[in-house]
Amino acid sequence: MPQNLKDAVRQLTAEQHAEVVAIRRHLHANPELSYQEHQTSAYVARQLEQMGIPFRKGYVKTGIVGLIEGCNPKSKTVALRADLDALPIREENEVPYRSRNEGVMHACGHDVHTASLLGTAMVLNRLKKQFSGTVKLIFQPGEERLPGGASLMIKEGALQNPTPERIFGQHVFPELETGKVGFRSGIYMASCDEIYVTVHGKGGHGALPHKTIDPVLMASHIIVALQQLVSRNANPETPTVLSFGRIVGNGSTNVIPNEVKLEGTFRTFDETWRSEAHAKMKAMAEQMAESMGGSCTFRIERGYPFLINHPATTARAKAQAQAFLGAENVVDLGLRMTAEDFAYYAQQMPACFYRLGVANKARGITHPVHTSEFDIDEKALETGVGLMAWLALSELENK
């Protein structure tokens, strides 16, 4: 790629930084939950209209796909993706752009992703006479909730007309300082399934347990048994996580309830083991409840697949990131048991999902995602915009 084009990306990114920060702050102050991103979608549409970028809206109701056509637009297409939705978390940050929607917060950085992609669009739109091919901009709803907005966008044709040859996505990473990015080739993020169990027994007085079939005790045994099942059956070389985060009994100190509800998550990196584990866990839970005189209903909602970064595409992206940011600012990532519906795009075409450092330890900006105090060093937006624009241009030029 010509050095002058790289310099142009850097210059435009710097010039537009204040505007991108303002966009991020607007989005952060006005978060919306999954599949309810109506105002967010309208805001993105207005931004694209102001840039003169053609787009189609209405994918999964709130999704948007825009197109930036360079010279010879049919030669090659590269897609860039951002997610729109926020989380049901009450923000505790005392900042001017604090969430105005009580109990809803951009605690996973999707405001950063969307603002970065809009900033990237500004850069590429200004440079469209200097590159060949087309850049597809995907603004996707519902990343935080099954079945995942990515899967629904694909079903509704977001990857058609034109069909991209590659797709890139970035995600905030508070474990990295601002200015740095991270890559991992091959398997990167886990599959994610939701588990819903209802243990049925017979309630009664806590002082008369012999007259009850205690679902609290049954639920306790089921949790322990399932943890042992996973630890004794999973191949130690295949990372696997089973966690229960919600137990509802609705009894009291002296009341044993009729039923107990459990909710949890199961994550791994092997599809065969994933299916085997589902069947084994269901059988174990049902048998455990039956052996104690009760019963249970065991439901698994199959979630996102594990995410695979295409090796050649990721290697090129990492090399271009080193060229753009400096090798000292590009790190290698380990496996993560978190999940991402970007994995659905990676099943359709070569993909690269990388991490954007957003921390600033000196300023105390280190809180993890999905917490009420998550925030970013907004200097990271300059890295996010510049690198994504450069990766798109580099991939369009790659033969």
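That was protein one. Protein two is written in the same sequence-then-structure order:
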Amino acid sequence: MNVNVATADWTKTALADAPFEVKRIGRYMGAQITGLDLKKGLDEKTFRALEAALIEHKVIFLRDQNLTTAQHVEISRWFGELEVHPFRPEGEFPEIMVLDNHKDNPVLSTDVWHSDTTFRVKPTKYTILRGQIMPPLGGDTLWCDMEAAYNGLSEKFRTMIDALQARHDFKNFRALFTRSEADQKKLQRMEELYPNPLHPVVRTHPVTGRKSIYVNPQFTLHIDELNEDESKAVLDVLFAQVHVPEYQFRFHWSPGAIVFWDNQSTQHYAANDYYPERRRMERTAVCGDAPF
């Protein structure tokens, strides 16, 4: 699959004509959108500018939006078909995944660096997360620019990993299944639906054509072309890149804030420093394509 240069050019045109303001916050990524009330919905021009800002800045946020769940879903559908997360119970809005953590419901592995659902053949494209109930302290979300992380590697190392592929698994969600016969049947069904896909270690963004590291400690098992020791050594180097502060962007939540991010070029980590206080979020996710 090749990147269409003409497709990439539309982002500059759309941003130049944006009916809102975009203020870059982070060195490599992260921008605040102002002058836009999402409660009024989107039109084609505004949507194209918003998606262009998302592709350009990788993480964009708006404060004081105070959307309803229905409005959240409606806005999200502009970006594409929405996922229903396979490991979360469905409710009135199956596209919504509720993340409601407190002393009686500790977090399940959101405090591990990852790109969403890389255990799918076609992982998540964009994630749209809305803050509802925030703890008095803590609960920030961090992102790492995996394009910057890739560029920070030596040229020889980049050349070595460019053609490699890694196998992924929903390994963290396996903790949801007990040893009961019923749960083991459910687990077997999930293994049939998500049979350890292979993804490139280095992903090319379908719009910008830029390369990013596309392995993560949450879902990546090993690199297929290497033996066990070699795979671990290479993955350890790549996993460590997310810890470089210069590549990171950190967001302090407030009720009513909403954040959009591009999983094709970032990883994220939800700081679990608020336990046992409560933090409630609602999330939608846009279906993606097979990485290349």
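The chain has one domain: 1-292. Keep this in mind for the problem set.
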